[in-house]
Design brief:
Blueprint lengths: L2 H19 L4 H18 L5 H5 L4 H19 L2 H13 L3 H15 L5 H19 L3 H14 L9 H10 L3 H27 L21 H19 L1 H4 L3 H16 L3 H7 L2 H19 L2 H13 L3 H16 L4 H13 L7 H13 L9 H12 L6 H26 L5
């Protein structure tokens, strides 16, 4: 490894360190890394200015921004809050049913909303119900956190890391579902069962749930049904991508424009609510990884991994699952996905549906292990503090480690069985 490669590797590690420790905001960490990458790259003639402009994947950013606009319009219509409250109402005052309803609502909503937005929504719903029934909110809110992190694993738009992997792997919406939907359903059932066993004694006694009508929370019924129509259209178009001759980013941006026109919202208001922090983090980190890739360091890792595993696809798959899962416990899963995609894409022996599926599962499953694993975990602890309840690092980590380990173990078995990998 020459000195230039070491410089770029240090810039990459600095970016990861700043992101993991939250010394500065995630976007600032990535943009600082991009600035250093650009400076050293041009100074050492590792790449040209025109090469650097190609580091940013416009298709990926278009998919992320377009999906965010559609989801924000749906959120402002009250669609997701309605879904959460209706699920809780169906559970009545039965703590067991309420627990399952909150878990299912959390996972379902996070298939469309960003984890942070889903957490805000579920934290408000859980806090309200816990106060009304005088329940301990800790088991409900921590379980909601775990399920929000798990939700959306099987869809292309379920998380930003999924979008990154899907674009690079060339997987369409239907393929994504065919590879991972069954695993997600089984993980939902397994995780809810494990969480229930962990918190069974703290769920409370059966009580009468106060009467409320979720439909009354919808201020504009017309906008509500428009949001439903736009989301259905988005999903149907994703399913029909093979026949449209366009990429998923075109569908997302097209539906975003339709959503802005049909909703009547001030576009400036919608744009203010978009998670620009994530958008700029992706752009900056893409630049950092692009510079590192130009040094051929990532190609070296690809070659080394292929040589180490030989023809054992199952070994590469399992290594990808566990390494990405463990890394996601410490570093943003977006950063993990952006790091792995050039490594997997750079070697034909690694570029298989099994390995890509392992990366999807690993980046998603490691994100709710400790109170510091991601924004959703930090927000959950903050929500409990606002209720005057503190959750220790050890208590949160115990639940997170148990669920993450079980999820990764089950995913290992699933991948070997689903893709017929020979051990």
């Amino acid at each position: 490894m020459d000195n230039v490669t070491i410089v770029f590797l240090l810039v990459y590690l600095l970016t990861l360190l700043l992101s993991a420790t939250e010394t500065v905001p995630l976007s600032v960490a990535a943009l600082l890394g991009a600035l250093l990458t650009a400076w050293f790259g041009l100074q050492y003639h590792v790449f040209t200015y025109d090469d650097a402009l190609r580091f940013i994947d416009i298709r990926l950013l278009g998919l992320v921004i377009g999906t965010m606009v559609v989801v924000e319009v749906a959120r402002k219509s009250g669609l997701f809050r309605f879904g959460a409250l209706y699920a809780i109402k169906l559970a009545g005052g039965n703590p067991k049913r309420l627990f399952v309803a909150i878990c299912l609502a959390s996972a379902s909503i996070s298939m469309f909303l960003s984890d942070s937005t889903a957490m805000l929504l579920m934290a408000a719903a859980v806090a309200t119900i816990a106060k009304l029934l005088n329940y301990d909110p800790v088991p409900y809110l921590l379980s909601a956190t775990i399920m929000i992190n798990l939700g959306g694993t099987s869809t292309l738009i379920g998380s930003v890391s999924n979008m990154i992997i899907g674009i690079e792997a060339g997987m369409n919406f239907t393929e994504f579902i065919s590879y991972l939907a069954l695993c997600e359903v089984m993980l939902w059932v397994l995780t809810i069962y494990v969480l229930y066993k962990l918190f069974q004694k703290r769920l409370g006694e059966k009580k009468e749930l106060p009467e409320y009508n979720p439909w009354e929370t919808i201020e504009d019924k017309n906008l509500f049904w428009k949001s439903v129509l736009i989301l259905v259209l988005l999903i149907l178009l994703f399913l029909a991508l093979e026949n449209l001759g366009v990429g998923p980013e075109a569908v997302a941006l097209g539906c975003a424009i339709i959503a802005l026109v049909m909703s009547g919202f001030d576009p400036a208001e919608i744009f203010r609510e978009i998670d620009w922090e994530t958008v700029f983090f992706i752009a900056g980190f893409l630049f950092v990884v692009g510079g590192l890739e130009k040094t051929e360091f990532l190609s070296m890792i690809s070659t080394g991994l292929v040589n180490f595993a030989g023809n054992n696809v199952w070994l590469v798959t399992v290594l990808t699952l566990w390494i990405s899962g463990l890394m996601s416990m410490i570093v943003s899963n977006i950063a993990v996905a952006l790091t792995f995609v050039p490594i997997i894409g750079g070697a034909s022996a690694l570029n298989t549906p099994a390995v890509w599926s392992a990366l999807v599962l690993g980046t998603n499953l490691g994100g709710a292990t400790t109170p510091l694993s991601g924004a959703v975990c930090i927000m959950a602890v903050g929500a409990l503090k606002r209720e005057g309840i503190s959750v220790s690092f050890a208590e949160f980590t115990k639940v997170g480690l148990i669920t993450s380990a079980i999820q990764l173990l089950f995913s290992t078995i699933y991948l070997i069985a689903r893709f017929g990998l020979v051990v």
